[in-house]
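To assess whether the prediction recovers the assembly geometry, we first specified each molecular entity separately, as shown.
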Amino acid sequence: MMQKIKLNRVLLAGGTHGNEFTGAFLIKKFEQFPQLISRYSFETQTLLSNPKAFTAGVRYIDKDLNRNFGRQFFGEEELIYYEDLRAREIQQLFARHGKTPADFIVDLHSTTANMGLTLIIDTDDAFTLQLAAYLHSLYPSIKVYNSAGSGRSQDSLRSLARFGLGIEVGPIAQGIVKAELFLKTEALIYSILDYLEKANHREVPLFDQQLTVYHYVKTMDYPRNKSGEIQGMIHPQLQFRDYQALCPGAPIFLSFDGNVITYEESSTVYPIFINEAAYYEKGIAMCITQKQQLTCG
Amino acid sequence: MMQKIKLNRVLLAGGTHGNEFTGAFLIKKFEQFPQLISRYSFETQTLLSNPKAFTAGVRYIDKDLNRNFGRQFFGEEELIYYEDLRAREIQQLFARHGKTPADFIVDLHSTTANMGLTLIIDTDDAFTLQLAAYLHSLYPSIKVYNSAGSGRSQDSLRSLARFGLGIEVGPIAQGIVKAELFLKTEALIYSILDYLEKANHREVPLFDQQLTVYHYVKTMDYPRNKSGEIQGMIHPQLQFRDYQALCPGAPIFLSFDGNVITYEESSTVYPIFINEAAYYEKGIAMCITQKQQLTCG
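The predicted structure of the complete assembly is given in tokenized form:
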């Protein structure tokens, strides 16, 4: 049963992490060729979210912008961090009570993990799931990750709008563009905009409504010593195996001195963000997910 | 004809670029288990070259340390950049007239380009070439890159000693460790130390003396607009094809607006460092090399 939803403004954001170049250069392309993203029934806006970090080629200047939304910002004199200033500016424009509120936000990210093209959703409302199922019918290799529980539904840029999606592509090193993933991400964005246009006209196409969704459960850290220094690395048998079943007893880490550390919990899980560079400092070696089969619609 | 060379001190350096974690974590391992790198006929020392950059997870704090050697440093008051201070400290210890001069330096690097295990040599003296040929006989997939002409023979950390090698491994994102490449680099280091031990005893083993060496010719930049902004990316057909023949007319870049840019020079070359993240800011999309077949000894 299709919901009656009218979207007036769609925001495409990239460079929310300044060293994730795929999204940043796509936003620059769309700024140069706005006809590529314009549709009849809604306005499309673009945002290079963290321009200072993009210029510097770093994830952030002072703090992670994509953990910095959904809260009150105080007076000018209290905003000493660049990402606080930037989050306030973005909220004042695109949040629900902002000057030009966005009804739908697509935020473009990349990862050093082997996550292919991943749609990150933060809710399981019917509209979002139907969109995800539609995109999956077009691009069968796409994965869908529900990050509700990770905190991103409250503090991410995409959480500012009623509806939103993160796009995560990898594996790709920070600070580079890989043409193949650039082109795939670009095609996916056009498909999202086309779908939103059809949804506004209540002409959502027919498609396979079976969908696999990976749900965030928790994170797992690297082995560390008492001083907090990392003592091992992702085991070669786990590296690049995002979204594949991790069974009890399987190797997960190889310590620098040669010991294998195995997965010792009782149930099979599906790790993602395996060996994501930006997560070393966050104490995250991988995110653990559980797999769910859904029938949408 | 084997040269009579006696090495008294070998320096293993890593983290010269702070976000190249393979080398940094190997150095930390060797600090913890010095017996792994100790040999009878010479002293082995380790150096985490840029500890501040390693802690911050960045290539450098103020300037690229591995372009910062081989010159005079002035008084304390003139050293406002961290890498100037650090280069002076390292020179005062390990350069030829330093307190504990190194006769051989191995400096550990990683790259986002698909360079596998690469030995970087800066000279073509017989001792270095024989070592390279020996390592190639043990690890046939190793590539040998002669960077003379790139400037590294004058300004790199390894240039402080009479003999030296860079080890470059990839593809690997900045800020992560990939176990497979960590283990391969570690094995290569032990083989280098074993060879140097034998060389000190004039017991260099027999091996295949045929060697392919890739010589630095020049760098090639990304397409840019008048403001210097990048306008394209490595063409998908060139991405990951380091050390493979690039023929006149072959695609090298894909502009963001969809145009293919081809290689328009007259001779076949062998590009390396294709899409190295750290080189975007240096105006380098790849390094062009020429291939040479050598018979050593």
